[in-house]
Amino acid sequence: MTEFYISMEKLSNPTGKQKMVHKHFDCIVLGGGLIGLTASLALSKLGLNIAVVERNPLEKLIKSSGDQRTSAISASGKVMFDTLGIWDLLKSNAEPILDIRVSEKNTKGFVHYSHVDADNEPMGYIIENEIIKKTLIDFNKASPNVSLIFGQPVKGFSTGQATIELELSDSDLLNSNLLVAADGANSHIRTLTGIKTTKIDYKQTSIVFTVNHTLPHNGVAHERFLPGGPIAFLPMTGQRSSVVWTEKTNIANELTDLAADDFLRGASIRIDDCLGKLSLIGSWATYPLSLTYAENIIADRLVLVGDAAHRIHPIAGQGLNLGLRDIAHLVDKLAQAQHSGIDFGSYEVLRRFQSSRLVDNTSLIAATDGLNRLFSNDSRIIKSLRGVGLSGVNMATPLKHIFMRAAMGHLGQLPSLLEGSLPLPND
Ligand SMILES: Cc1cc2nc3c(=O)[nH]c(=O)nc-3n(C[C@H](O)[C@H](O)[C@H](O)COP(=O)(O)OP(=O)(O)OC[C@H]3O[C@@H](n4cnc5c(N)ncnc54)[C@H](O)[C@@H]3O)c2cc1C
C-alpha cells in the first residue's frame, strides 16, 4: 500500500528550517468529497499518477465526515461503482428502490414508478454518504498510484504551457498536467480562475435525518410536494428511512427548534403516517439550498466536476449522479487522448470533455430548477395544472418510461464506466 503524505516528505536544511516540497503528478484532484475520491480512483485506472488534495485531515474524515445524508445512487451510478470495484463493499448497505410514489397533498394527481416497468431492475439504491466516503478512502489508500494529501487547503495556482502548479497552505508546490477541481459548490479554484458563475439562493433549507419506523417501507421511496418544498422518505437497509424535508428557510428554522416528538409527528403526517410511528436515529442536519453553476467547466489545464461545476436542487436526488457522469465522460476523453498520443491536459481534449457534458448538465439544471419552481408554489391555477400533469404522466406510459430511464441514468450515449467497462489502459 502506497500512502504518501506530503507533510512527512518535508526536507530539513542544516538550520532545521523546512524547505518547500516540489512534486509532480500526472493529475491532481482537488477535493476529497465523494466526487473527488471517485475521480481519483477512476483516473488511477488509466495508469496515471494521481494526488488528491483535501483541506480536512484524513483522521477526521475516517472518524466521521459529519455528513448525515444518504444518496440515491441511480442504476448507472451503481454500474460505475461496480466497474471501479467498490460496489461489492457497498452493496450490503445499499437498499434497492423498488417503487417511487410522487404525490401532492390535497390534489388527485400522483405518479407511481415501479421497477416492474423497468425490467424488474431497481430504480436506484439508497446508501449513507458516510459509508460511500469511507469505502472510497480505503480504495484510494490501497491504490498504488494515488497519493492522499489531506489536511491541506489550497492557497492558489498558476498555469504554465505544459503544467499547472498548485500552492498548498504550507507553501508546498505540486504540479501536474491537469487539475480536476472537485472542491464543491463554493469552489475556491473556480473563483480564482474568474470563471463566470451563476448563483440563485432558493431561500429553502433541507432538514436531513434518519428514522426507524414501525411499518416496513417495502423498498418504496415517497416524495410529497408541499408549498414550501418536497418531503422525501427514502428506504434504507433495515426498517429505516432517510428523510429530506425541504421548507422555506424561516419555517425550517422553526421546525428544528421543535421537540423531537413534535418534529417527527409533523414529518409523519406529511406522508399520511404510511410508515407507522417514527423514531429519530441520531440528530438532524440542515442544508441551505442554492443553484450554482459555472458557465464554463474548463480553463487552461483545469476542469470543474461535481458540485464545483453545478450544484442543483436535491428535489430529484441527482446531484451526485450528475457528478459521477462528469467523471465517467472525463475518463473516456483522457483515455482517448492517451491512445492517440495527445497531451491529455491540452485545451482541445478539455474542450471535447466540456461539449460532452453540455446537454446532460444544462437539462438537469433546468429540470430540477423548473420542478422546484412548479411545485414549491401555492398558486391555485398552478396547483390544478400540476394535478393534471402528474396524473397525465402516470397514465402516459411512454412518457413515464422516458422519465424513469432518465432518473436511472440510462438516457443518451453512455461513457464506458457507466456501461460497465474500464476505459482501455494506456499501452
Ligand atoms: C439535502 C441533500 C440531499 C441530496 N441527496 C442526493 C441524492 O440522493 N442523490 C444524489 O445524486 N445527490 C444528492 N445530493 C447532492 C450531492 O450530495 C452532491 O452533489 C455531492 O455530495 C457533491 O459532492 P462533491 O464531492 O462535488 O462536493 P463536496 O461534497 O462539497 O466536496 C468538496 C470537497 O472539497 C474540499 N475542499 C473545498 N475547498 C477546498 C480547498 N480550498 N482546498 C482543499 N480542499 C477543499 C471540501 O473539504 C470537500 O471535502 C443531495 C444534496 C443535498 C444538499
Report on this model:
With 427 residues, the chain is α+β, with helices and mostly antiparallel strands. It has a single domain, classed as FAD/NAD(P)-binding domain (3-Layer(bba) Sandwich). Helix content is 35%, strand content 30%. The chain is built from 13 helices and 19 strands. Strands 1, 2, 8, 9, 10, 11, 17 and 18 form an eight-stranded mixed beta sheet that branches. Strands 6-5-13-14-15-12-16-19 form an eight-stranded mixed beta sheet. Strands 3-7-4 form a three-stranded antiparallel beta sheet. Strand 17 and strand 18 (302-304) form a beta hairpin. Helix 1 runs parallel beside helix 9. The longest helix has 29 residues, at 347-375. It is globular. Residues 1-17 have low confidence and may be disordered. Bound molecules: flavin-adenine dinucleotide. Flavin-adenine dinucleotide (FAD) binds at residues 30-36, 53-56, 69, 71-72, 153-154, 182-184, 188, 206, 208, 244, 287, 306-307, 314, 317-321, 323.
